[in-house]
UniProtKB/TrEMBL annotation:
CDD domains: ABC_MJ0796_LolCDE_FtsE. One of its GO terms (cellular component) is plasma membrane. This is ABC transporter ATP-binding protein. InterPro entries: AAA+_ATPase, ABC_transporter-like_ATP-bd, ABC_transporter-like_CS, ABC_transpr_LolD-like, MacB-like_ATP-bd, P-loop_NTPase. The keyword Membrane does not apply.
Length: 227
């Protein structure tokens, strides 16, 4: 299991009271599967991802990432765990304007302290996996929105994370390109045995997900397991 959220409650201060963003949420995501998370605006989807990414510590409950319980870990250990085990794809690809597609990926390996030569090969392999081998030398302004998001996904996979978290990765794309990005995430998840959580508003994109979880008012409803 690459992600285990068990009985997680998260509240935010809201004036004199507290707002419950996540209410006893339990979600276990095995490797090689995509769990899509849907729900109305403000229901808690981004909060769920923030907790799974270990960026926010819940009030109660446990979070285990790639077999490592996060309770009691200090900031440095959490950063190490994130670097090693978590890939994050945000809504808008935050690519560096002056770098080529391949360099966007290689930067990740440099942050991780890996040797540059191995990083180049790995970047090319991942760009090939997302269908952009022939765009490796292009800078962001020379790529389409869908291509930029594919670079973004490849970059999130650069350190071979056990857990891939994607927050509305298709929101800047039209339906067709959005569907292609979701299909790509699903294929990469199955091939690389990543555990993937995909937050989206667009239910039309979800036919390829292994499981759809619904958040409402901070509560998570999962489909009953198949008999
Ligand atoms: N930092 C914060 N401080 C206070 N309240 C917050 C904070 N972040 C989120 N909230 C509140 O927590 C609830 C859940 O927010 P969250 O961003 O997780 O929802 P969401 O489902 O991702 O929404 P959307 O689909 O609009 O992005 C909302 O009521 C929101 O207003």
């Amino acid at each position: 299991m690459s992600l285990e959220l068990t009985d997680v409650t998260l509240t935010y201060s809201d004036g004199d009271t507290r707002l419950t963003a996540l209410d006893r949420v339990t979600l276990h995501v095995p490797r090689g599967t995509v769990t899509a998370v849907v729900g109305p605006s403000g229901s808690g989807k981004s909060s769920l991802l923030a907790v799974a990414a270990t960026l926010v510590t819940p009030d109660s409950g446990t979070v285990t990432v790639d077999g490592t319980p996060t309770a009691g870990l200090g900031r440095g250990d959490l950063t190490d765990l994130r670097r090693r085990a978590v890939g994050i794809v945000f809504q808008q690809p935050s690519l560096l304007p002056s770098l080529t597609a391949a360099e966007q990926l290689q930067v990740m390996a440099a942050i991780d302290g890996r040797r540059p030569r191995g990083a180049r090969g790995r970047a090319m392999e991942l760009l090939d996996a997302v269908g952009l081998a022939d765009r490796a030398g292009h800078r962001p302004h020379q790529l389409s929105g869908g291509q930029r998001q594919r670079v973004n996904i490849a970059r999130a996979l650069m350190n071979d994370p056990a857990l891939l978290l994607a927050d509305e990765p298709t929101s800047a794309l039209d339906h067709e390109r959005g569907a292609a990005v979701v299909d790509l995430l699903v294929r990469l998840t199955h091939r690389r045995a990543t555990a993937t959580v995909l937050v989206t508003h667009d239910r039309g994109l979800l036919t390829a997900a292994d499981r759809i979880a619904e958040v409402r008012d901070g509560r998570l409803a999962l489909p009953a397991p198949a008999p």
